[in-house]
């Protein structure tokens, strides 16, 4: 019999929430910034504000992505200490592969600069807010992951 601890449950839930965040931001990019309806369910604070600004940028530049971002792997790198039996903060690190995506303009012409990396080491901080895990801050960098 396997015992599930608050940390194990929180870690699994944070990784699942991170993957959902990637799905939602991918949908946002494919829509050219028009599909923002699920952003508030996966992001909060600074990350939510940044995602809304990114959506405005896509709309203003009239660009959208094609394809789907792949999460090659994702893992919890840090969990907050349980308070009242609940973990409410986590950090997730993941390898993101964008090789099957592109950004195109209104005419369908690629606007991705030559040499743009397609593998990214993504680190996101999540917080348990409104009864769900949400990304609150993050950064990524090109990496061979």
Task: Produce a short descriptive summary.
The protein has 145 residues and is an alpha+beta fold. Helices cover 32% and strands 32% of the residues.
Overview of this structure, please?
This is Mce-associated membrane protein. This protein has a single domain, classed as Nuclear Transport Factor 2, Chain: A (Roll), CATH 3.10.450.240. Helix content is 32%, strand content 32%. It has three helices and six strands. The protein has helices at residues 6-30, 39-42, 45-61, and strands spanning 64-66, 70-79, 89-97, 102-104, 119-129, 132-142. The longest helix is centred in the first third of the chain and has 25 residues, at 6-30. The protein starts with 5 loop residues before the first helix and ends with a strand. The mean pLDDT is 94.
């Amino acid at each position: 019999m396997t015992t599930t601890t608050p940390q194990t449950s929180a870690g699994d839930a944070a990784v699942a929430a991170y993957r959902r965040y990637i799905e939602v931001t991918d949908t946002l990019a494919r829509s050219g910034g028009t599909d923002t309806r699920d952003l508030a369910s996966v992001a909060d604070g600074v990350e939510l504000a940044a995602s809304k600004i990114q959506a405005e940028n896509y709309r203003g530049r009239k660009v959208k992505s094609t394809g789907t971002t792949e999460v090659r792997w994702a893992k919890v790198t840090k969990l907050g200490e349980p308070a009242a039996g609940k973990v409410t903060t986590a950090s997730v690190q993941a390898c993101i592969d964008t090789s099957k995506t592109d950004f195109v303009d209104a005419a369908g012409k690629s606007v991705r600069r030559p040499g743009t990396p397609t593998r990214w080491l993504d680190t996101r901080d999540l917080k348990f807010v409104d009864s769900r895990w949400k990304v609150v801050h993050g950064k990524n960098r090109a990496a061979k992951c």
